[in-house]
Amino acid sequence: MTSQISSILSQISSPADLKKLSFAELSLLAEQMRHKIISVLTKTGGHLASNLGIIELTIALHYVFSSPEDKFIFDVGHQAYPHKLLTGRNTTEFNRIRHDHGLSGFTSPFESVHDLFFSGHAGNALSLALGMAKATENSRTHVLPILGDAALSCGLTLEALNNINPDLSKFIVILNDNNMSISQNVGVMSKSLSRWIHHPKFSLLSRKLEKWLMKIPRYGNTIARRSHKVSTCLKSFFCPIPIFEQFNLAYMGPVDGHNIKKLISLFQTVRDLPFPILIHVCTKKGKGLEIAQENPSKYHGVKANFNTAAEDKLLPAVKPQLTYPDIFGKTLCSLGESFPNLHVITPAMSLGSRLETFKEKFPERFVDVGIAEGHAVTFSAGIAKANVPVICSIYSTFLHRAMDNVFHDVCLQSLPVIFAIDRAGLAYDDGCSHHGIYDLCFLRAMPNMIICQPRSAIVFQQLLQSSLQWTRPCAIRYPNIAALQGDPIATDVNMRRDPGLGEILSQGEDVLIVGLGHMCSAALSIKLQLLAHGISATVVDPIFIKPFDNNLFSILLMHHSKVIIIEEHSIRGGLASEFNDFLATYSFKVDILHFGIPDAIFSHGDKDNLLKRVGLDTDSMVKRILTHFNFRTKKSPSNKLSIV
Q1: Are 35 and 6 in contact (CB under 8 A)?
Q2: Active-site positions?
Q3: Where does thiamine diphosphate bind (predicted)?
Q4: 564-582 confidence digits (pLDDT tens)
Q5: Is 93 annotated for ligand binding?
Q6: 248 is in an annotated binding site
Q7: Which residues fall within 8 angstroms of residue 197, CB to CB, at 6 or more apart?
Q8: 373 is in an annotated binding site
C-alpha cells in the first residue's frame, strides 16, 4: 500500500469528508478500505465476504446522501463495516471489532448517531424504514433501507413491501444483490433501459417535465407523482415487470455495485424523486480477496488468524476440540443412517450448525428454507404430522422470531418436532442481538414441550437419539463451545434418556449446586474450590428443565437448606424460575443463590471477560457463595469428594 492510499482513509472523520474527494481518490479509498478490513479481520475474525462486497456502494451512498440527517438502515448490520469506517470509527476500536473494547460487528446506536438500530436479525429494515419515512414525510429527510438479497426470503420484508405507500417521496430501497439468494429477473433490454433512464439528458428532461406538470392547475402534483409509470410501461413492453413494481416501488437496475462513478450519478438522479424506488445493485461477495470471492459462503464469517492465501496452503497447526455443533453434525449423520426417513430443516444456518455433511449425504431429506424461521417451524410441523421424524435446527436467538409457530403449529397439536437449539448461551463476539439467553422464558410456557440441555458430548448424543422415541415436541438446547468429551458418570452413548429424570453427579452435605447443561462443569469446579474451605457440596444436573425432576429434588431438599443454581441464561424465566415454581408447589423453604445473566443488555466480548462481566466466572461465584451463606473455612472437610 502506498502512503497516498493510506492517507486517504485517515482523512475521513465523517461522511462529509467524502464530498471533497475526486472519483480517482474515491477508488483509492475503496482499495484502502478493502485492505483495512482484510488486515483487521485476519486478527479479530468477523464478517468478511459481505463487507468486501459492499465497499463501493457504501462510499457512493455516503457521497450523495448526508447521514445522519438522511437515514441509512442496514439489513443485516453485519455488512456495515465500511459504513463504520466512513462515520468516524476508523479507530483502535475498529481494530478490535467484536472483541473487548472494540466495535460491534453489527450496527449499534450505542456507538454512533449514524447507526439507527441494532441490526443482527434479518428482514426488519424495510419495516423500520417505512416507519421512519411516515414520521418524516414532510421533511427533507431521505430514508434508505439497504437490503442484502437474503432479506427478501424473510416474511417480514414481504409484509413491508405490501405496505408501501406509492406517494412516499425520498424513499429509496437499495437491494444489494450478491447472487446469494435471488435469481436474475431482468434482461439486456432492462439494463439498457436503466442506462437510458439515468442518462444525464434523460434526467434533465425528466426534471423539466416534472416542473411543467406541477404547473397544471389542481391535478399537477398528482400527475407529476405518477409520471414514473412511463418508464414502467416501457419496461413491461420489453421484459417482464419486476415483482417490486407490483408493490408500488419503481424499479431501476441492475447496476454495477463496484462502479463508484455510475453509482453516484444514479443516486444523484433519483435522490429527490416524488415516489418510492428500488435500486437493484449487483455486487460480488468477497470482492478483492480471491478465496473469499470464489467461496463466499465459507468466508461469510471467518475466525481470527484465517489464511488469506489459497486454501491448499492452509495447514491448521492444532486440531481444534470438537464443539457442541460439531457433535450435533456428526450425530445427525449417524441418525440419518439409522432413521432412513429422518428430515432436517434449517433457516439459513446450515454452515454454522454443521449440517453440510448431512446435506451432502441425504440431500433429499435436508431443506434450507432461507431466513424464514416461522416457515421452518411450521414446515417441520407438517412433516411431523405425516409421522415422519424431523429435526428443526435453529439458533436460540432466531427461535424468538417463530414463537407463535412453535405454540400454534407444534405444541398446540403436540407434534413430535425436535428443536435442536444451537448457540444457547452467550454469543460472545456477536453480542447482544445474538445472545441465546431468552428462549427458556417462552419455551417453558409452551404446553406439551420437553426441554433439556446436555452437560457433555455423551449426554448430547444420548438426548438426540432418545428424542426420536419421544412422542411430544422437544427442545434440546446447547452452546457453541468446546464440548466436554468425558463425563462424571455417563459412559454409554446409546443409553436411553427419559424426560424428567435428572442425575446426581457428586454428593456432599453443606450445599446443593444445580448446574444447567455445560454449567455443570463450573458447578464441579466450584465444588472443588469449596472443598478447600472445608465445605462439602452435592452437584446435580437436572438435564430436563421441563418436565422437572420433582421426585429427585424433593429428596435432595430434605437434606439441603442451601441451594445454588447456575445457568447461562437470563435470570428471568430460566431454570431458577422453574425451581422456584417447584418450591412453591411443594412448600419447601430454602436459601437460594442464583447465578445467571442479569436483566440488562450485554454487548460483545471475549469469552472469559464476558463471563466475568455477568458474574459467571468461577472465582466470582465462589466469593459470592462464601459471603452469601456466611461460610467459614472449616479445619477439615466435612466430606471428601465422591462421584456416584
Answers
A1: no
A2: 285, 373, 401
A3: 78, 120-122, 150-151, 178, 373
A4: 999 999 999 999 999 999 9
A5: no
A6: no
A7: 231, 252
A8: yes
